[in-house]
Structure to design on (323 residues):
């Protein structure tokens, strides 16, 4: 198969590309490297079935050429990470909404099956857990830029489902819950690589807020396997799926666990959200997915525990000198 991955030089995209190449597919990656990294795909560059296109998905002429040539599309390109979203809100909105609109419009011209990557952020401040795909959404005030990401991804979902309903375009929506693993970086706010890097460097491990907010972390290979299985499923078309784990941990306990696993002497310090991000920053207390729907659809069950995930990330950062 000829596969197009937008944002394929990113953390998840590079793992997906690697997996698909291993299956014998031809993979084209388009990435503007705003958050993607050459290091992520360096090992793929010598593969004759791999093509890298360094450009933005907002280049409609280019995307027309690439989509016409492909069989399937994984649309991962997006502004990601709380820090980046707060620092560059215009970039977040335009990249996520305009980029997805370009992808859907051209995919529809050639009737290409497309998976659109959404986020657990779309559930907003909903306190009913676990989050189910048909739950109501509760958003924070528009004066806080972090909610622009949640709303932009919700618009992506609306657009994708609208193209499916109105034109019959084969669209699948997935909502990711805190995907982690080797190659992920902490500079945009991703918590596990940030904690691991701080612990290995002997720096203060900085926990934002009171640390009692909880998350469920999913290993990247579990996510990649689910994406590929969903793409192969006709029953998944026109549907929305959570992809995640239900092993919940508070952020303060996560910091303690990483400190213990690394044997670090780093102190753990709590930093107010207003200092880490912006005044009035609003966060979700819990973020736990229901994975019943995706289990029923493709038999999905996470294979990796949190301890295994952390061991893998710690080993990765040790192998590259803690960077």
């Amino acid at each position: 198969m000829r596969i197009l991955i937008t944002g394929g030089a990113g953390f998840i995209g590079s793992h997906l590309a690697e997996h698909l190449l291993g299956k014998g597919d031809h993979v084209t990656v388009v990435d503007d490297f705003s958050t993607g990294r050459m290091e992520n795909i360096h090992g793929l560059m010598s593969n004759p079935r791999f093509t890298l296109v360094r450009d933005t998905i907002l280049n409609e002429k280019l995307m027309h050429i690439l989509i016409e040539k492909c069989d399937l599309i994984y649309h991962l390109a997006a502004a990601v990470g709380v820090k980046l979203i707060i620092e560059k809100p215009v970039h977040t909105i335009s990249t996520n909404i305009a980029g997805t609109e370009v992808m859907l419009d051209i995919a529809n011209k050639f009737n290409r099956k497309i998976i659109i990557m959404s986020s657990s952020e779309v559930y907003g401040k909903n306190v009913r857990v676990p989050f189910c795909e048909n739950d109501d959404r509760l958003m924070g005030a528009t004066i806080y830029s972090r909610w622009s990401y949640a709303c932009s991804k919700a618009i992506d979902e609306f657009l994708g489902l609208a193209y499916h309903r109105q034109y019959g375009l084969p669209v699948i929506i997935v909502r990711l819950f805190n995907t982690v693993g080797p190659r992920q970086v902490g500079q945009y706010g991703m918590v596990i690589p940030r904690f691991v890097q701080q612990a290995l460097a002997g720096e203060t491990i900085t926990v934002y807020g009171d640390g009692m907010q909880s998350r469920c972390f999913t290993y990247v290979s579990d996510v990649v396997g689910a994406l590929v299985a969903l793409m192969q499923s006709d029953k998944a078309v026109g549907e929305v799926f959570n992809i995640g784990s239900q092993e919940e941990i508070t952020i303060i306990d996560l910091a303690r666990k990483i400190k213990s696993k690394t044997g670090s002497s780093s102190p753990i310090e709590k930093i107010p959200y207003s200092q880490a991000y912006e005044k009035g920053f609003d966060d979700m207390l819990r973020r736990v997915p229901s994975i019943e729907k995706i289990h029923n659809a493709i038999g999905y069950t996470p294979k990796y525990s949190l301890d295994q995930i952390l061991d893998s990330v710690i080993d990765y950062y040790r192998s590259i000198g803690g960077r």
Summary: The radius of gyration is 19 Å.
